[in-house]
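Predict both folds.
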Amino acid sequence: MAKVNIVRPGEGEILGSGAQQIRILENGEHTDHRLGFAEVTIPPGTPSPLQHRHA
């Protein structure tokens, strides 16, 4: 059975400050570095790159 890593609200590494933040939910440590996952908070009207992915 696969292990599950749970990141609760208020947990995870936070990058940035103020209204723009990135919260790291999975840095690859639990997936043999095959997958990383982050929650990005960007206020409305903020210029940002289009959705994309990194191979």
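Second protein follows, with its predicted structure tokens after the sequence.
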Amino acid sequence: MKITEIQYQQIEHCMPRQRGNVSYSNLQVLNAILYINEHGCKWRGLPKRFGNWHTIYTRVSRWKKSGVLQKAFEQLQQQQIIRIKIETVSMDRTSIKVHPDGTDTLKKTTHNLSVNPESTGPLKFIWLPQIPEQS
């Protein structure tokens, strides 16, 4: 997936104006974003032909915070330059760090032992999974 110069001119009004000594054009950065999304690679895996991954990542991060990416991709969809359809999103714990309390692990508890341990018998623990009610 790559945007040509002619296609870029249709959405150029959504992009911020480049000022100063900028090494990568907005078109190059957009094509780098599309490459990352199409191939699912990490920013560090961006091919050298797009330029320094960190420079591009920094610009994309600023665009995201200021809403530029949202406007640009809305225009790309409306102009039918690109068509993106998200069918499935899947995440597992290798991509998101979860606090230990959120992993459904058993918590250590202190047992209140009675004065007479023979009367209570050995310690017992039964874990019953909670099944959500279906409506």
